[in-house]
Amino acid sequence: MNRRGFAYLVAVLILGLLAFMGMFLQQSSSAEYSQAAVSVYRTMARQLAEAAADEACVLLEERFRDKTVTGFMQQLLWQASSSRPPKLGGSTGLNPTLLHDFTDLKDKVTQVLTLKDYHMTRAGFEIEKILPSIKDCRPIPQGPLDYDENYHHSPDRTSKFDNHYSKDWYLTLQLEVTVSLQKRRKIKIDYTVSRDVKLLNMGPIGRNYSLFSIIGHHLNTSDTTEVQRILRNEMNTPDSPGGRLFLWNMPFQSRVYIHGPTIIALENPELVADNQNSGAFNIYDPKYPIPGNNQAFQYNDTFFGMSYFPTVARAIFPSKSLWDAISIWYREGKTTKEDQLANQSIYHGLYTHKTVYGGILPHKNKSLGEILTGVSTSGLQDTYFKGTNINQKFMPGGPFCRTPWKYVSETLMGEDRYLPNSKADFDKAVQKKFPKDDPHLRIEHRWHKDDTEVAEQTRIYSRVYEIKYNNLTNNITTPAPEKHVEFSLSYFNDPDPEGFLGKLGFAAGAVGGSFFNAIALPFEAVGALAMPLINKIFGPGEGIALNPAEQNFPNLFPTNFKYNYRASATRRMKDESEIPRDAEGRWILNGVYWLDSFQVEAPVVYVGTGTIMVTRYDANRPFKIKGSIVALKAADKVTPLGHLNLFYHPYQPTATNTRERAMIIDGSGNLIEAGVFSCYGIRTTGGDIPDLTKVGIYPDQPTDKWDPNCLGKIAEVSNIIFGNYVNFFMNKHHQEGDLWIFHNFNNPLYFEKMGAGYRVVQDSIDASEDNRKAYELMSHEFFLSPRIQHVSSIGGGDE
Amino acid sequence: MNKRSAFSTPELLMTIVVFSFGLLPLIVLFQSSHKQTAQAKNLMVAHSLGRTIISEIKALGFETLESEMRNPKIGVVHTSRPVTGPLVPSDAESINYPEYYQRFNTSVKLERASTENNKKIRVELDVEWKEPNRKFNLGFGTVIVRYGP
Questions:
Q1: Does A432 lie in the same domain as A393?
Q2: Which of A3, A522, A583, B11 has the fewest CB atoms within 10 Å of its CB?
Q3: In the 3-class helix/strand/coil scheme, how is chain B assigned residue by residue?
Q4: What is the pTM of this model?
């Protein structure tokens, strides 16, 4: 067999095979490298897309937070206000034109463009588009508060305090980003990311009220006798904590001193048999649909945010001097009898007490001279009266009353210093005038605001409450209360707030240093009677939980109360230690912080606007404040640079001890510059002021004679909420120390500063639509969640 | 004796010569292929490093990076640092980077935009390594932002 030349053939074949393998290998490794490169480019493109989306989000956030006309906040708010909850139908309040020049941000992401052009140049990336869009804008569901009628409505007004601009909304911000490779035109990365947005009303709850109690009294019994016993104890035993709390703004006898409009529950133990609520609750009772006496709330609301003296009022203090007392009695026609007759005609015979005349306010720790003077001029025992008339007006009194004050009926002493509208300092007065009737100071039927007939028929009995004060021993005793003795609120707010505030040194820059600078720096088982209502409101479970069987509670809640506060949370934290601080240790507030627990043991200063929310009770770390919490001030030293809301709602239907669930303000010297809500009320543990003169409040003198820094002194020795206070239950008997509540007139969320004076911000809001919008713009904040709600990415392969 | 047909010596020699000449470019081809495979491997390693390091830097967040720019503590910013040692330096039980990774060097640069109220930090990462005939470099990057006022 001739095989000559076959070796060449084999060699060539082998070579060919090897060459084929080599080429295949080459092709394979080339493809591998190419695929690796594509993979790298895909990652780079994805990194660029993510970076572009982040940068675009920040740009959008800045623009949305911008409240000026060039920003988006205004337009977003107006558009959001047109959206309605799904259950109410309507639109989602979207407006595709909202983004203006931000329709495509591909040329605005400067940092990504720098990366692309100067650092990640290998593949020739191109940002093709960054398209933002807003979706799904709806009000945050708030249960029954989705219906405006459930917010408190003042009968003075034709409209609610808040309107459709005042809500909270959630929405989605979506970005569509496309990154392509110039050198490989077919490779594109489409990246879509969306983030949650909340548009929240960060203003105070119930801004128009210094104190607003949603339900009121908190009793754990439905037994008529027991209810009466408890209420009587609180009313008639001033030396006990409960007793002190029944009274408001009464020196020595109150735990709470309020300056500003207030809504608090009224109880009347003497009307225990009048309805099944035993004189205790202002709760709507389907068996007795007409509100009884206990469905009334003390109420006042003026356009200054402060109430006036009513002229028809009872004197509270005795004569300043013996002669003053005697001279009145010996005046012709000024007898007690006439006074009684006057009362018969004016007060429908309910009123039989003698008129008492103005005089100095007694105080504890009196000197011997003062005791002797008191005894010599007024006898061993003085009688004080507080009360209201059937027209539901209140007796002015207390430290913010221009005491000494006196009652002069229109048929009595209608001359010189006793003329109606005469001033109280009768010692020197010749022609003084009492203020006019204040139509805004009265009791209001919250449940039937629109039914005047029901309101008129409702029995809100008025009567005086008599206190015997011993000039020698300072003892206060109370005779058996008369029938129809009623709530003894007695407080005053100056009808001239500008003058009043000015006198107290509240003008800008004149506030006493200690007031702001003292910071070194820094339902028991829910009442058995109330349970049906409470269950309706909250439903089962701890904290605020929406009741699936949602019902309406007309006129019950204060403005900006959030039924579903947790849905407004922007940050979840363990405790206060996680709140961001600046280099000086100040809290930097920005959002709604939902904490597991909260305890402040040292003074804190905050800057920015935020809400601190705790919705559960922690026995190891109950909500406690020991130390002042104040806002950083602007250059004028009084305007706060931000606002804080404290929201504590450890509601537990089966809880048997509400004392431990109250917000604790520990000790004294605590100034809390905030809007405060506490479900079970506040438990102060100290801060009594036995002698108001020691803090510069001289009840026998007009306010302009008081120490300009009296509030500063109060802040040092007692406890102040400088803002407002809202609770669900009063739990007055748990309050062991004093608490003073002042509206924060320096905070634009409460008051508008007008030149040298102030006006309550509601007055401004009501004045014009523009003012309303300006306020809502101020109180709302835009929050873009850094967390990704949804993300997707497609493309990136060789097509 | 029967004549047996077979390759003659010159024929074999010639075949070997021809085969050898034919094999030479094939060897180059194989070498090139091997090199490309190695490059692809290095590329993937660099890719992996790029993803990991960028993710780590993103996880640090704006505040940490800002602080790091002012006062370096954890050594985010560095130049030409070999990839070696434990994967998680703070974890004593962390596995180490494979020895192979030592040929890779990383550099990280943080830059802030010069605008006011700056909320953006540009991160530039370079991964470098040596191939037999040249240096190789891959640039990764991202932008870390701060939300809120």
A1: yes
A2: A583
A3: CCCCCCCCHHHHHHHHHHHHHHHHHHHHHHHHHHHHHHHHHHHHHHHHHHHHHHHHHHHHHHHHHHHHHHCCCCCCCEEEEECCCECCCCCCCCCECCHHHHHEEEEEEEEECCCCCCCEEEEEEEEEEEECCEEEEEEEEEEEECCCC
A4: 0.73
